[in-house]
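Cardiolipin synthase N-terminal domain-containing protein
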Amino acid sequence: MTKNMLSYTGGGLIGLIILILDLIVIFEVINSTRSIQGKIGWSLLVFFFPVVGIIIYFLFSNRAEYNAHYEAIA
């Protein structure tokens, strides 16, 4: 493989990771107990600004309050 091919592979891998994280966040938002407006707002933020949206969601979304129905695996 040439150096140029490796740079394309690395970019594709990073893009795939961001896509997977976006899908996880959107799935978590849809299954939360938030209001419809909250769900739409968070989903649009993550959709239009994928990297920044994920960071903002994990920092400011108060996930524990809205996902209280999850149980610990033990």
